[in-house]
Records
---
Amino acid sequence: MQDSYTLDKARVRAAFDRAARSYDAAAILQKEVRERMLARLDLIKIEPKTILDAGAGTGHASRALAQLYQGSRVVSLDIAMGMLRQSHITQPWWRKWIEPSPDRVCADIEQLPLAAGSMDFIWSSLAIQWCNDLDTTFAGMSRALRPDGLLMFSTFGPDTLKELRAATAVDSDHVHVSRFIDMHDIGDALVRNGFSSPVLDVEHFVVTYDDVMAVMRDLQAIGARNAAQGRRRGLEGKGFLRDITARYEQFRQEGKLPATFEVVYGHAWKSPDAGLAEGLSPIRMHRRT
């Protein structure tokens, strides 16, 4: 059911298309989160043959995963064709000769166009916050994974942009900051949709700026524009910008304005029982040695 926070996917796609060229220069937090997720893979022993990078952006994670799991097939999927084109441009020329390029698919991760059981590993870094229905998203990922396949993801939690949310509350009739889902609700959604043993944790990052407009410019540069159905249509007036600037000042510390980002990390395994009719359980045969 739609509400004022429901995302307009056409607007999301257009925003990321426009931001494709500026994304890498501005996506400092996204790079840091990606590197921390890759480091976590050192503790997880998997040998995937097929990998989906869901919300691949400009392709840095796809290339890192292909290098980490050599011989695997990596599929880079993103809602914005501009991002996928940019991922080809930013791939070093010498790698194009010695390493296979990831397959590129332009699609919405809420509607994965993949065969059931076709993936061993699904990776998604800071992308599922752009989904309207987390149950639909996780159900699709569960369907695409083989039994015992791994899902690893990061997304933004409710404290994200809390300063901007408070500052824009001066206009309570419109949505100015997206709604983000709590870690515990994410865990519940994983279990509902065929995943077992979910592990989730939270980390907070604070990025500092000189002024409010710098916050806005950074968000636009990575494509994070307001796409909620309840957003104000048309340009904001000077009075609104003046008001949010004044309200944001209450958060200034040591001469800088903070922008908080709550990052939720998670991973879970597709249950081998997922997809079975209610009341049925698999029979597992063990070879006697």
---
Amino acid sequence: MAEIFKVLVLNQISPLGLARLPAERYRIGKDLAQPDAVMLRSADMHKLDIAASVRAIGRAGAGTNNIPVTAMSARGVPVFNAPGANANAVKELVLAGMIIAARKLRDALSFVAALDPADPEMEKKVEDGKKAYAGIELRGHTLGIVGLGKIGCLVADAAIKLGMDVTGYDPEITVDSAWRLPAQVKRAGSVGEVLRNSDFVSLHVPLLEATRMLINADNVGQMKPEAVLLNFSREGVVDDAAVLSALDAEKLACFVCDFPGPRSIRHRKVVCLPHLGASTAEAEENCAVMVANQLRDYLEHGNIQNAVNFPNLRMDRESRYRVGIANANVPNMLGQISTAMGRAGLNIHNMSNKAQGDIAYTLVDVDSQVPAETIASIAAIDGVLAVRYLPLGD
């Protein structure tokens, strides 16, 4: 009989995503004991006591800062996300941010909102006041992009179509991203080169130790005094205090961000949005569908795609009997796993193994049913983090 999986949801998840988990095999709810998996968006899992039964976590979005990834890695639990699923939504918001800054729309809207509709002089005041909000056009100006993943590539393509010159920097650009990058993008050799030569700078990098405070007091001064900095990436990649100081010193024209802070929300040269990057119906649906599909493929077949802490590994089924093993990336693991299976008289039909950093992951298809004692003996191998037996149900 096929195993029934329990999925705990910590936020409102798009019904289109949840529909990818068929009711005959999945129980989904907000108050489930001993869940097999967790789906969430922005809920803070650092504050939760995560049940030992949890085998996988799926974040319906890109960032996983709200999930204790390191602790889950130590338990052999993959943490899935949805890279690129919200890329178009973020791209459109970046374009809106550039236009808001270029045309001084925030201040212009505030000016109009303050007008008295009963004032007979209102039309004259509009005509007299509008000159204070004259802006610039994007066409002919240079956009610098730091981070050339899917979002960065989409922003670059859209900016080029608007008539902008685009320069980009990404020291770890993937092959897929390189293929997506428009040929017109000029490749910069450093973040500093992007800052010095751009009229607008948009950040599209994950929050890692290497990117924390990427824009800081040491380099923000390299930007043009009339430049606009946009951060729709992660809050920690910008030193807000350094940027506010640059704005106050007239060394930077405007800062547009998706992360309001206590010092920035009322600053006259800062445009703060309430973390709207992925807040479209389409993006939420795309993220939920992608993560649900990934969770299902892992729970039922052990395949891994887009886990931030595990290698990608997909192996087509060649047997009803499959074992998935997460372990420390150390020598002789495959030998010990094979020995344990051989000792039980199991014939390995197919095996695949991949590693990412300190974690390795193995899928093994065998020709006959795997005894519980064999699963226990593999789990007892020093360095094995988790073992899952994945037989196909009747």
